[in-house]
Structure of PKAR protein:
Amino acid sequence: MKVKWMHVLCKEGIAQDSLFLIHQGAASVTCQGQRVSELKSGDIFGELVALGLSPMTTATITATDTCFVQELHSKILLPALEKFPEERQKLRQLAALRMEWRYALHDLQNFDWIRGAPVGFPALLEQMLTRWIFFRGDEIMVQGTPGDSLIMISTGSVEVRHDDRVIRELGGMILTGP
């Protein structure tokens, strides 16, 4: 798809399921009306929704130059990534970096058990957090294995299984642990 200057390629908050590849041109990235980044030839966007990590687009992408862009639907992308685990891992790492700035300190304060805590508490936790990104079907914890961590689910949902039976579903801003 060839798009002209100032054309909106992707609008924040829209349900879609495609990853886009910018082969030529440049585009600006805005979140909640604030410009946060610039994309150029060789960059991608839409990976969070294409990978199922976000139900809606997380930014508005506007062409700042004439762009040649290709679209890759998740129904094509996901089976391809299953066949090429190294490429899946590369895309997973890129998605984790993009999510890093999106789900940071301010999101810790959305957890009920942290809301209203002294300012220093979420800041201290933020310094000690290990962030992980999981795809649909990945195991986060396995029944019967020792554990010593508190898992805080910032976005997405998980199934809790016991003896291969789903006993509960948890959504974002929920805690789980051993």
